Amino acid sequence: MLLLNFSHPLTPNQLASIQSLTGRAVERVVDVKTHFDQGSPFVEQAQGLVNSVEVSAAEWQTMPVLVNPPSLSVIACILLAELHGRMGYFPPVLRLRPVPGSMPTAFEVAEIVNLQAVRDAARALR
Predict the structure, then answer these.
(1) What is the rounded CA–CA span in Å between residue 83 and residue 124?
(2) CB 88 within 8 A of CB 115
(3) Cβ atoms of 93 and 68 closer than 8 Å
(4) Which end of the chain, N or C, is more open, meaning fewer C-beta atoms within 10 Å of its C-beta?
(5) What distance in Å separates the CA atoms of residue 31 and residue 4, rounded to the nearest whole number?
(6) Extended strands (E) in 1-126
(7) Could you report the per-residue pLDDT of 50-87, keeping only the tens digit for each?
(8) Could you give the CA distance from residue 76 to residue 71 in angstroms, rounded to a whole number?
(9) Closest Cα to residue 33, out of 7, 10, 65?
């Protein structure tokens, strides 16, 4: 599985949790430095981030992908729209949460959200 990380680096414990939850080995982690210029259009910057991931058109459509989205919601939304266009479906996303009482704050994998399943269930409510 390809893990696209648009956020902070993931720890070995977090990667082990991801493998446990998905039942798949994380074969490749692509850490994508995500910093946007507030004075420039976000769509072009998001496209540039996705273009920086060296994946062919065929791989986008066939490779299992998990996304750790950036924390800024607008950027996350644009990235997911861009990825959907390339992949033909919404990729699952990683949700991290703070570990209660950790000092300094540490994060653990809370869940993996299957966005395509969420989308499909919502379509039934139309």
Answers:
(1) 23
(2) no
(3) yes
(4) C
(5) 6
(6) 2-5, 28-31, 65-68, 93-98, 107-113
(7) 999 999 999 999 999 999 999 999 999 999 999 999 99
(8) 7
(9) 7
Query: Residue 94 phi/psi, 5° resolution?
Result: -90, 135
Report whether 69 contacts 84 (CB < 8 A).
Answer: no
Q: Return the amino acid letter for 63.
A: M
Predicted structure pTM score: 0.93
End-to-end CA distance of the chain: 33
Spatial distance between the Cα atoms of 47 and 63, rounded to a whole number of angstroms: 19
Q: CB–CB of 5/69 below 8 Å?
A: no
Q: What are phi and psi of 45, to 5 degrees?
A: -65, -40
**Tens of pLDDT, residues 8-61:** 999 999 999 999 999 999 999 999 999 999 999 999 999 999 999 999 999 999
